[in-house]
Amino acid sequence: MPAIPHLGMAGADSPDGLRRFAAAMGEAYSDTGFAYVTGHGIPADVIAALFDASRRFHALPQAAKDAIAVNRHHRGYIASGVATDRASSVEAATRPNLSESFIKLSEAPPGREAWPLDGPNRWPDLPGFREAVTAFEAAAEPVARRLLAAMALGLGAAPERLHRLFDPPTVWLRLLRYPRRPADAPADRYGSAPHTDFGCLTLLLQDESGGLEVRAAGGDWIAAPPVDGALLVNTGDVVPVWSGGRWRSTPHRVVNPPDRDRYSIAYFFDPSPDARIAPLGGSAGASTGPPPFRFGDHVMAQLDATYAYRRETR
């Protein structure tokens, strides 16, 4: 059975260390598309505080969560049963995901022409919640940018070429709760149906409950349990385009555990809405990847196909 590789990020802040890490990334993401990354530098207490904030949020009365229900800017509380992965290229879902979440997006920079998701974030009335979110994001962004620089080198492109597509980045933070799986649940009742992520990089933290599965290149589903001190990092749909199909956007799913709730934190680091996603110069020799697209258009198509609230508010 294939295993998810482990990558050490310590030392990647030096040019030589970054090149070594880039080579390891190239091997991991052309084969598996997922890797456990240690040595990332996000403090353990910052992670613990965000998990605590997430649990406290999800323990709020339903009315308090509904008060910040997700709006047309895709910010706020997403209730269980409102997201169905109809647009998945892996397995078109017929049942909604069995999960609920809080989602926050990056603020629009001054002077940017309005994008449909630009708008204020929605915050719960919960002491310390906003501070825990802000602290985690401040620690996670430098990690994402270092991963991005290594990705560029691994794809044979100058890091500046890739960084320009993230000026500014589209950053999403999602705090998820997966309720325990009912005993009589059908086989296709997922916490998150099989899908690929539609962006660039996903930095994932999860509790010890298990349930996340990754589809290996050979088609088998393999467990992706948490590893102490590690981020589980995967690449999304823009990466096969940049790499001409050499790097993967790997399908994954969540099967909720039957005996406990599952909590996870997903930090998505994606290009600017106006970024044109096309093969990078260093990947020009490969032509098996998806065709180019504008990232913002891709995002809106995915959200419109997945979330019931978007069909109700358009």
Protein topology:
Layout: E1 6-8, H1 15-31, E2 34-38, H2 44-58, H3 62-66, E3 76-78, E4 100-105, H4 129-154, H5 159-163, E5 170-178, E6 192-195, E7 201-206, E8 212-215, E9 221-223, E10 231-235, H6 238-242, E11 252-254, E12 262-270, E13 276-277, E14 293-294, H7 295-306, H8 308-313
Parallel strand pairs: 1-2
Antiparallel strand pairs: 2-10, 3-4, 4-5, 5-12, 6-11, 7-10, 7-12, 8-9, 8-11, 13-14
Helix pairs in contact: 1-4, 2-4
Key words describing this protein structure:
about 325 residues; eight-stranded mixed sheet; alpha+beta; 14 strands
Can you characterise this structure?
Helices cover 29% and strands 20% of the residues. With 314 residues, the chain is an alpha+beta fold. The longest helix is centred in the middle third of the chain and has 26 residues, at 129-154.
Strand line-up of the largest beta sheet = 1-2-10-7-12-5-4-3
Q: Please give the largest β-sheet.
A: 8 strands, mixed
What portion of residues belong to β-strands?
15-25%
Radius of gyration: 19 Å
- How many DSSP helices? 8
Question: What is the overall silhouette?
Answer: globular
- Total number of strands: 14
- Following the backbone from N to C, one meets helices and strands in this order, namely EHEHHEEHHEEEEEEHEEEEHH
Structural class: alpha+beta
Q: Kindly state the percentage of residues in helix.
A: 25-40%
Unreliable runs: 282-286
Termini distance? 46 Å
**Overall mean confidence score, pLDDT:** 91
